[in-house]
Amino acid sequence: MTRDEDALRMLAELEAANADLAERVRAPVWYHPALGLLMGGLCAVQAAPVPGMYAYYAVFIAGLILLVRAYIKRTGLWVSGYRAGRTRWVSVGLATITTGLMLLSAWLFHTRNEALAPFVFAGLIAVIVTIGGFVWEAAFRADLRDGGRL
């Protein structure tokens, strides 16, 4: 074999490995909706008494731990949502949008006495985080296919 043939073969092997990794990191179909519900719950719990809020925070933390474990068990790895690449923009956008919606909901609930605000915004946040999770995953898989790092 010539050097050019060796280089082409190695490049093909690298591209195949990247494509395999991109397939391996696919989350279960329920993963993103579960995260969306957990995040929406953070908004909805604003309408609860303080002990109820603390109880939900415990549920939220346990839910996140279970999601991380399920992802690691399925894929064999865990990746920061704020890693370099396309995914960082998705993560920052989601964090900004959800924080803004939660703050607006809290303001409406506590200063304007809009009792339904936490629940309406919770549903909106759940949908946005679910969709955003699928978008993040697609961006991550595209980064991997293009030879980006974990």
Any key phrases for this structure?
single chain; elongated; 150 residues; 78% helix; mainly alpha; 5 helices
Structural class: mainly alpha
Total helical segments: 5
- Number of β-strand runs: 0
Strand content: under 5%
Query: Secondary-structure element order, as H and E?
Result: HHHHH
Uncertain spans, ≥5 residues at pLDDT below 50?
A: none
- The radius of gyration computed from the alpha-carbon positions, rounded to a whole number of angstroms, is 20 Å
Distance between the termini: 32 Å
Major sheet characteristics:
none
List the helices and strands and how they pair.
Elements: H1 3-24, H2 31-44, H3 50-75, H4 86-111, H5 117-145
Short recap of the structure:
With 150 residues, this protein is mostly helical.
Q: Could you explain the architecture of this structure?
A:
By secondary structure, this protein is mostly helical. It is built from five helices and no strands. It has helices at 3-24, 31-44, 50-75, 86-111, 117-145. Helix 1 (3-24) runs antiparallel to helix 5 (117-145), helix 2 packs antiparallel against helix 3 and helix 4 (86-111) runs antiparallel to helix 5. The longest helix is centred in the last third of the chain and has 29 residues, at 117-145. The chain is elongated and about 75 Å long. The mean pLDDT is 91.
